[in-house]
Amino acid sequence: MRNLLLFLLIAASGLSCNQENSEYKLKASMIGFQDGTLFKLLNLDKMEFTDSVTIKDGYFEFDGIVKEPFSARIHTVDGKYLILWIEPGTIEIIGDYNKFSFSTIEGSNLNMVMTKYRAELGHLEERRDSIMQKMIQLMSSNAEEARVEFTELQSSIQKIDKEIFDIRVQGIIKEEPSYFTIKELYFLRNDFTKDSLRQLFDLFSIQLQQTKYGEVIQTYIENIELDIGDTYIDIEGINLEGQSVRLSALDGNYVLLDFWASWCGPCRSENPNIVKAYQEFHDMGFEIFSFSIDNNINSWKGAVEKDSLIWTNVIDRNGSYSKMSALYEVRAIPASFLINPDGQVIAKNLRGMALRNRLKREFENHGL
Asked: Which CATH code, of 3.40.30.10, 3.30.1540.20, 2.50.20.10, 1.20.210.10, is assigned to 236-365?
């Protein structure tokens, strides 16, 4: 929950009944930025830059076409950034260099809700950051007093996290149902029982339930979690050549279904181990189906090439909002499922030598 505030801001959106393309205009008045400073607009759902402009006389402007609201980030090369939502109409931003991330945003109902929760949770995040810094300092000490203080600070962190969670849940319940609240529920979906998740999901209109956020939540509610010994669920993605490929194409082999992303550090650290396992057991009948939840296809392709992932690699155009990963109730990545030739899930989340040892045992038992 380290980046809860960031996730909250990314989550903010609003209901738009008109699905036709509409124009948006973003007007920014700033103090403290030098003329010529470059501002870039990043679509956070797609992780793609959509525009860039330079500031002149304290003013810059973005405009374009939007089908439905999307979360965005405006930032400069020196690390200044502002998270907001883009929706049809005119959005006005007023801010300065020192507090760019907390600029005033007017003319947008979506951003009005976003800034409300940005302000409400900001002080909690500041307290959390301060406590985390103290905990990091204490980690270098073996003194008993330091250990006691560390435990107390952990308790404080848990209380703050609970307070942040409660505020976000109350936002889902009390605010008018919108893209903002449905995406908040999407982010918090793993923290509810399925019955509680369904009750909250029922607060939303059919239109909102059918958004990409709602479809993932619906999948979580309806899906039965796979246990060891269950038959795998067939899923599909787009391979490097743009062709649709199903997991079932690898039937009859031992298959590692691996969920990962190019931006996931632990995933990239694990890839060399998976490469070794593939090299060792592929000729015996071992295949890999790597399913990326990247939002940026180019980043995915670059990571596949750099990490030498020469097996079946696919991606979902919905990226992190994929229903495919929701079918396996993937809560965090890396996540993997080992499937035997009979189509049964025989292990989950094997890492490093654990994967290779399990494969060795399986093939030895079959006389290979």
From this structure: 3.40.30.10
